[in-house]
Amino acid sequence: QVQLVESGGGLVQPGGSLRLSCASSVTIFSRYTMGWYRQVPGKQRDMVARITSDGSTTYADSVKGRFTISRDNAKNTVTLQMNSLKPEDTAVYYCYALRVVYGLEYWGLGTQVTVSS
């Protein structure tokens, strides 16, 4: 059974930083696109950042220049470094793993990030 387990969420003041991590049990992790989505109550889940198997990254416009996604294929982990956090970054953050060629998609249970003074 594939698992994605997020960690690192919490409460932070505006302007602060948090580092989210996602540990994955998918096989051949290096071949998956990994990423982060976020969701606030009553709204759709939106892409925050993703990193492909070859290391290419994509970011939502709202987080460009503040968030950085990275992966460690040896440890089967993906990390989201979040700096200069804003109240509007408050959401539940979900890790996902995608392998398009086989139609495989997995999601974590989410971790809450709250940005408030």
**Gyration radius, to the nearest Å?**
14 Å
Pairing-aware structural class of the strands and helices? mainly beta
SS field, number of helical segments? 0
Distance between the termini: 40 Å
Question: What pattern of helices and strands is seen along the backbone?
Answer: EEEEEEEEEEE
Strand content: over 45%
The gist of it:
The chain is mainly beta and 117 residues long. The chain is 0% helix and 51% strand.
Top keywords for this entry?
mainly beta, 51% strand, globular
Q: What can you see in these coordinates?
A:
- The strands form two sheets. Strands 2, 4, 5, 6, 9, 10 and 11 form a seven-stranded mixed beta sheet that branches. Strands 1-3-8-7 form a four-stranded antiparallel beta sheet, with no helix packed on it.
- It contains no helices and eleven strands.
- The mean pLDDT is 96.
- By secondary structure, the chain is mainly β.
- Helices cover 0% and strands 51% of the residues.
- The relative contact order is 0.32.
- The N and C termini lie far apart (40 Å).
Strand-helix topology:
Elements: E1 4-7, E2 10-12, E3 18-24, E4 33-39, E5 46-51, E6 57-59, E7 67-72, E8 77-82, E9 91-99, E10 104-107, E11 111-115
Parallel strand pairs: 2-11
Antiparallel strand pairs: 1-3, 3-8, 4-5, 4-9, 5-6, 7-8, 9-10, 9-11
